[in-house]
TrEMBL record:
It comes from the Bacteria. SUPFAM superfamilies: Rhodanese/Cell cycle control phosphatase. Gene3D superfamilies: Rhodanese-like domain (3.40.250.10). The lineage of its organism: Bacteria, Pseudomonadati, Pseudomonadota, Gammaproteobacteria, Alteromonadales. It comes from Shewanella avicenniae. PANTHER family: RHODANESE-LIKE DOMAIN-CONTAINING PROTEIN 15, CHLOROPLASTIC. This is Rhodanese-like domain-containing protein.
């Protein structure tokens, strides 16, 4: 189901496309620090801080579709580069949390509420 969408992707990836992937079941990874994640994050996101990627990558499914985001898009770009360099095929830089939240589709907004602590 995700593969037809992935085959149409070209850089840069829009936030709208990221949401389409997320609603179709892509794994969502927040690469910010645990403190940043604790303050605010997408509820479906897992927190895997960029500095922990080396130990996290070996036990992951390299064929899984993954959308990564961070505070400004820099760390998520770095995470994408690390994953691709280690054989992950379907990684997408979702950019910043603010970008994703500003483009949340109406049908997703009722299902995906922002977690603020």
């Amino acid at each position: 189901m995700l593969l037809p969408l992935l085959s149409r992707l070209s850089n840069p990836i829009s936030s709208e496309t990221c949401w389409e992937l997320i609603t179709q079941g892509a794994r969502v990874i927040d690469v910010r620090s645990a403190i940043e994640y604790a303050v605010m994050h997408l509820p479906q996101a897992e927190n895997v801080p960029l500095e922990t990627f080396k130990s996290w990558m070996p036990v992951q499914d390299k064929s899984e579709v993954i959308v990564l985001y961070c505070g400004a898009g820099i760390r998520s770009r770095q995470a994408c580069e690390q994953l691709k360099a280690n054989g992950f095929d379907c990684v997408i830089n979702g950019g910043s949390l603010n970008d994703l939240m500003s483009t949340i589709p109406a049908d997703c907004a009722k299902n995906f509420s922002l977690s603020i602590h």
